[in-house]
Amino acid sequence: MFTGIVEELGEVTAVEILDDASRFRLRGPVVTQGAQHGDSIAVNGVCLTVVEHEGDEFTADVMAETLNRSSLGALAVGSRVNLERPMAVGERLGGHIVQGHVDGTGSIIERKPSDNWEIVKISLPADLSRYVVEKGSITVDGISLTVVDAGPDHFTVSLIPTTLDLTTLGHKQPGDPVNLEVDVIAKYVERLLGGRGDQSAGLPGTEGATR
Predict the structure, then answer these.
(1) Is 176 or 87 the better-scoring residue by pLDDT?
(2) pLDDT at 210 over 80
(3) Above 70 in pLDDT, residue 206?
(4) Rounded to the nearest 10 degrees, how much is the dihedral formed by the CA atoms of 204, 182, 33, 53?
(5) C-alpha to C-alpha distance for 138 and 89, rounded to whole angstroms
(6) pTM of the predicted model as reported, rounded to 2 decimal places
């Protein structure tokens, strides 16, 4: 489990295209400290499993389902990525409960800068809009954010300078894809109340959900 508090801005150093998957090598001096084979690291909000670890780099295999359902398939050598290690038991939950199981992708629609923050408008798939509410939580590229405004096909977030400086959202431009994970509590409540939960029961997981 993650919190959506990005630990560092990493970089893709190699991409190997396999028959039905891809293998990424990523650099992250902070998240690789003490990393071992089989550990989990969130990459742009997707929970991936460490295959190899050497120095400040690690490799992770990404299956076709995850490539198709997330924005990881668009990564290339030199791409910057948000990295976060799982939360340790007993630590503060600084963001919100993040599973690392991407529900879908959106794209940056527009950015409105101001003196002390920036408003970013992001497109929202129709099947996820019912989970997104004003002042609720959403994960964008692995970043725990508060929804400012929620529409039927979009939402907005307000980003402080720290978020702009230390995450991928400081560099994303209109048209760029982002990974979205809605608040898992909303999906469980819907299912328990007998709502439209069957549609969300098959939402795509990632490697972290299939181990």
Answers:
(1) 176
(2) no
(3) no
(4) 20
(5) 22
(6) 0.86
Interacting residues of 11 by C-beta distance below 8 A, sequence separation 6+: 26, 27, 28, 78, 79, 80, 81
Task: State both tokens at 39.
Answer: 């550990």
Instruction: Report the candidate in 32, 72, 73 with the shortest Cα–Cα distance to residue 54.
Output: 32
Distances (CA, A) of 141 to 18, 178, 181: 24, 6, 8
Tokens matching residue 118: 């920036």
The answer to whether residue 151 scores a pLDDT higher than 60 is yes
Q: Which pair of structure tokens corresponds to residue 8?
A: 């560092």
Beta pairing partners, 23: 16, 61
Give the tokens for residue 14.
């190699």
pLDDT band at 197 (very low <50, low <70, confident <90, very high): very low
Residue 69 CA from chain centroid, whole number: 12
* 44: nearest Cα among 180, 174, 138, 159: 180
Please list, in sequence order, all residues whose beta carbon lies within 8 angstroms of the beta carbon of residue 45, skipping any fewer than 6 positions away. Answer: 4, 70, 82, 98, 100, 102, 139, 140, 141, 142, 143, 179, 180, 181
- Residue 150's DSSP bridge partners are 155
